[in-house]
Amino acid sequence: MTLQHNDVRHEFVEAMSRVASSVWIATTDGPGGRLGLTVSAVTSVTADPPTVLICVNRKTPIESAIRESFRFVISALRADQRTTALTFAGRPSDGEPYDFSTSSWTAAPSGVPMLSGAVAWLDCHVVATHQIGTHSIFIGRVEHAGNGAGMPLVYGRRSFAELLHLPDIAGHLATMPAPIWDEPPAEEFDL
Ligand SMILES: Cc1cc2nc3c(=O)[nH]c(=O)nc-3n(C[C@H](O)[C@H](O)[C@H](O)COP(=O)(O)O)c2cc1C
């Protein structure tokens, strides 16, 4: 790798650390096992037909499990579910990493586990896979979707936070955005 590559890599990682994203748990179940992983690389692709993509590191066991099952569910975490985010990022504050018994789950229509209390969930069938560098991009056709109450958990500046002043879903966006950041927790988390 060239010096220039490393410089750009560092600037890229720093740039991405400055933006905020929702935090999801991706799950799958099938021949490769029942597995979950905390992910933020989730993008809505199109509503016609309903399609999302997720990016999953190829070194994770769930990456090969999704390639085998052709299925994944993503559950968007509620602001008070950061302990689940840590458990499925492999850094639990308590208990074993990636341990399903530390959170409450129900079965999505496909049978893949989805997180109870999630603010949104999507039950997906993989229609395309691309490999870019260290990651696989899974493009999923959304077969079932749902939502729940509460504020979303967000991740930015290497910390978890809760967005304040988001309007109720039935309300209107404020014309003047209010300050949004909760006090960041002390610990930082390197992806
Ligand atoms: C907020 C957050 C978002 C993450 N997003 C992704 C992601 O989109 N894709 C991914 O493959 N890993 C993502 N990770 C990393 C994995 O959850 C997990 O921490 C990592 O695979 C563990 O690697 P290790 O066992 O080598 O430490 C994220 C972690 C955190 C805390």
Task: Write up this protein.
Residues 172-187 have low confidence and may be disordered. The chain has helices at 3-17, 61-69, 82-87; strands at residues 21-22, 24-28, 35-39, 42-47, 50-57, 71-76, 105-107, 113-115, 120-132, 135-147, 153-156, 159-162. It is globular and about 50 Å long. It starts with a helix and ends in a 29-residue tail after the last strand. It has a seven-stranded antiparallel β-sheet with strand order 3-2-6-9-10-5-4. A three-stranded antiparallel β-sheet has the order 1-11-12, with no helix packed on it. The protein is an alpha+beta fold. It binds flavin mononucleotide. The site of flavin mononucleotide has 16 residues, from strand 3 and strand 5.
Essential attributes:
191 residues; alpha+beta; Pnp Oxidase, Chain A; 7-stranded antiparallel β-sheet; 3-stranded antiparallel β-sheet; globular; binds flavin mononucleotide
